[in-house]
Amino acid sequence: MSDGHVRAQVLVVDDERDHAEAMAEALRKPGHVCTIVHSRAAAKDELLHGHFDVIVTDLVMETETAGLDVLALARAEQPHAETIMVTAHGDIPTAKRALQGGAYDFIEKPVDLVVLRNIVHRAAETVMLRSQNESLKGQVDAAFGFEGIIGESAAMRAVAQMVRQLAPSTLPVLVTGESGTGKELVASAIHKLSKRASRRYLTFNAAGQAESLLEDQLFGHVRGAFTGADKDREGVFEYADKGTVFLDEIGDMPLAMQPKLLRVLETGDIVRLGANDSKKIDVRLVSATNRDLKKMAADGQFREDLYFRLKGAEIHIPPLRERREDIPLLVSHAISKYSADLGRVRPTITQPALMRLVAYDWPGNVREIFQLMHRMVVMAQGDSIDVRDIPNEIRSGDDNGENHAQTRAGLAGVGLDKLEKEAIRQTLAMTAGNREQAAQMLGIGERTLYRKLREYGLR
After folding, report:
1. What superfamily would CATH give domain 9-139?
2. Cα(449)–Cα(436) distance, integer angstroms
3. Are strands 269-270 and 279-280 parallel, antiparallel or unpaired?
């Protein structure tokens, strides 16, 4: 469509033929495809056999609530579609009831055709946004087989492959990487893809706790073990028996507590505080840290035998600055997610803005991207996100540290053409090759996109 509006399949239901034709003609002008019927029965036939994005139906036809019947049919047969009620002034209470029943909006007679076009346009965009979100989720699931882990770089594909290979085993897994890279998502994915998926999955942060409290929480206690212990309590390992335990920040576990954890991993026995007898447990352990455990072990800050026991296998998640090709997909996924959460039309992101985000070092990694995009979607004033909407510290490139400065230098050596090519490739992959959608998401015209596809040799 020339004005950039979404082209929708619209079903117009009205027993007044002239009125139906007038509404359909007003909607055809901006490019919508309209089908007209004049009864509830005819509407039912269309909803059973056709495909529509938006249904515009009069409330009162054969009966005073015929439009409500059409709404119910639409909700049952075409749940992806949105329904707009056309009502006389005296029927507004019924129209409001229709909203509670799932109608998108209502418009009063005599119908202002400009207002009708605007409502239909918004409804069509809502349908398109929902479809894009479902498509993106399907692509992510298809690419990696589990939710949450997003990325198409070689590094993230390797992570996904390791998760698939390790999940069915009983090996303990150590997940390493900087804060915010998604270590907890990898741990969750290992559990979901394992034979223990139907059993309990517990997460526990090992940092910042006294040894006695940590031991109680992990292994439990018996009544009378200490002041206030008025009843038996099972700990994390016992509660998660036959399931998976994710121990986060394992590098911060107190040294005195480490041999007790090692004993559990070696023997499968736990002893509650204050108890004499041990109990067998069967728990798959996944642990994570942003620290260098190998160096800590060499320096005497972490038990070497525990380190090797935890590292049955290791999955390392690289920081975003080492896999910049994943940034466009993460940005787009975050925009879609938060737009849907807010119930608003998904804003596009301009190419210069995307390039600036790709160039930024993201010290907070994936967590920082999602926090920023949440804020930007909330604060977006129009239908697009541009460079001016990016916070100053990111827009100006004021990253912290020598490594970030070195990374920027390396990025400059790569050149913007490579980043632009990668952004286009990622966007086309995300839209399943739909060039019109890709151009809209990139904030450029279709002709410009076609030219760049030829320049970069992309299909």
Report:
1. Response regulator (3.40.50.2300)
2. 9
3. antiparallel
Q: Is the peptide bond before 110 cis (omega within 30 degrees of 0)?
A: yes
Mean pLDDT: which of 89-98, 387-396, 400-409, 410-419 is highest?
Answer: 387-396
Q: In whole angstroms, what is the distance from residue 223 CA to residue 245 CA? A: 25
Residue 412 has pLDDT above 80, yes or no: no
Beta strand pairing status for 201-205 and 173-176? unpaired
Strand partners, 287: 174, 247
With a threshold of 0.70, does the pTM exceed it?
no
Quick one: tokens of 139? 């692509």
Where are the strands (E) in 171-263, listed by range? 173-176, 201-205, 220-221, 233-234, 244-248
Please tell me the distance from the alpha carbon of residue 455 to that of residue 435, in angstroms, as a whole number. Answer: 15
**CATH topology classification for 321-456:** Helicase, Ruva Protein; domain 3 (1.10.8)
> How many Å from the N-terminal Cα to the C-terminal Cα in the chain?
23
In angstroms, the Cα distances linking 254 to 170, 181, 259, 273, 417 are 26, 24, 10, 17, 49
- As beta bridge partners, residue 173 has 286, 313
- CATH fold match for the domains 149-318 and 321-456: no
- Report pLDDT digits (tens) over 79-114: 889 999 998 877 788 878 888 888 999 999 899 999
